[in-house]
Amino acid sequence: MGWLKVNTSNPGPNLGEAATGFLTSLAVEKKEASQQEIYRFVRWYGRERPFAGLAPPEVASYAERLSSSDTDHIKKLELIRAFLGYARKEGWSRTNLAIHLKPKKGKTRPQPLLRQGQPEAASLTRQGYAELEAELAALKDKRPGAIEEMHRAAADKDFRENAPLDAARAQRGLLEGRIEELEEILKSATIIDKKQEVTVKAGIGDSIILHDLDAGEEQDYTIVSPREADPTRGKISSASPLGKAVIGRGEGEVVEVMAPAGKLRFQIRQVKH
Length: 273
Fold this sequence. Notes:
CATH superfamily of the largest domain: Tyrosine recombinase, N-terminal domain
Helix content: 40-55%
CATH class of the largest domain: Mainly Alpha
Order of helices and strands: HHHHEEEHHEEEEHEE
Strand order of the largest sheet: 7-6-5-9-8
Number of helices: 7
Structural class: alpha/beta
Largest sheet: 5 strands, mixed
Radius of gyration: 22 Å
Shape: flat
Distance between the termini: 47 Å
């Protein structure tokens, strides 16, 4: 990919070209895991925008936006960070933009959803509730192994430089934090039964087909609560810019989502309860 390096005769690739170059350099498995998130990042700023024109504050704001609307933001930020690091090595950017891609403070560890001493009620689809129950059961099954790992690491009496023990403790802390969060969510959750609704407007739990009026592509999504969001599986958060735009809107309506590259326009082709 040396032909894309910045020099006087070639100002470097645009974001679309940079993304293609990066993804081409990956093994098939890593490419499949990274492609959707990398292209989402590129589309947010515009494919034709020169990579060299991407500024650190913009990268930082993208990280904060993603952190506030996506429960799986850390994994996605790692994928984009790898892309930005690759771009720096290729000479497409004068600075290492990856260091500005940091999760929003307070978002790195799951916290119990409490407000004024009371659990915050969550609206979940029946499928989402069942998935969280399954996740909780699986995490509880991992508890004995996590405890055993700590005991094994603690057998080394030199606690001053016991990296395995520190890692085991951190892993146990994340495990217990997620278990506590899931228990609070399930305890106060409200199940949304879409069969009882007769409205044709899009809402949480609905599947929608959107037609991108600019790109000419169709995309399938399911609108879910922020706790169920998983864009890699087509589940978009009701709190995301796109989720907010389509909720309460019906088939045939056109919605707009603001992005640095300009307005993204979608037509709602179908709403399925």
